[in-house]
Amino acid sequence: MSPTRLSTVVLDAQDAHELAGFYLRLLGYVVRAEEPDWVLIGPPDGGTGLSFQTEPEYVPPVWPTRRPGEQQMMLHLDIEVDDLDGEVGRAVGLGATLHDHQPQDDVRVLLDPAGHPFCLWRPTQPVG
């Protein structure tokens, strides 16, 4: 067994609890821990979590390219779905925005309410 393991990925936002609420509804996760400026959510049956921390000076990232003086995208979440169009509609209904730039037919790039890019995708061929 490895002496280290990834426990969570942390996303900054103006309001950690608001952004956590979006991902709770999108992913069907549960709250595992919370503090006034931090929330940890994760799958109900265990596994790697997703955390959010309030950063008052948070600036949304820019994607697909960095423009001078704007926050560069550092990471994005890939979320596998069975029904791409249906899940895009559901995500938009929860507060996401469909990005103007869509580079692939089997992937949709969206922005969460804090402006973080994330991708909904469906496999075009069996994975594994």
For the structure shown, list the relevant keywords.
128 residues, globular, VOC family protein, four-stranded mixed beta sheet, 2 domains, Glyas_Bleomycin-R_OHBP_Dase, Glyoxalase_6, alpha/beta, Signal recognition particle alu RNA binding heterodimer, srp9/1, 2,3-Dihydroxybiphenyl 1,2-Dioxygenase, domain 1, 8 strands
Quick gist of this model?
This protein folds into 2 domains: 7-56, 2-Layer Sandwich (Signal recognition particle alu RNA binding heterodimer, srp9/1), CATH 3.30.720.120; 76-128, 2,3-Dihydroxybiphenyl 1,2-Dioxygenase, domain 1 (Roll). It contains 2 helices and 8 strands.
Could you describe the 3D structure shown?
The chain is built from two helices and eight strands. By secondary structure, the chain is of the alpha/beta class. The chain folds into two domains: 50 residues, Signal recognition particle alu RNA binding heterodimer, srp9/1; 53 residues, 2,3-Dihydroxybiphenyl 1,2-Dioxygenase, domain 1. It has a four-stranded mixed beta sheet with strand order 1-4-3-2, with helices on one face. A four-stranded mixed beta sheet has the order 5-8-7-6, covered by helices on one side. A hairpin with an 8-residue loop joins strand 6 and strand 7. The model has no long low-confidence stretch (mean pLDDT 91). This is VOC family protein. InterPro entries: Glyas_Bleomycin-R_OHBP_Dase, Glyoxalase_6.
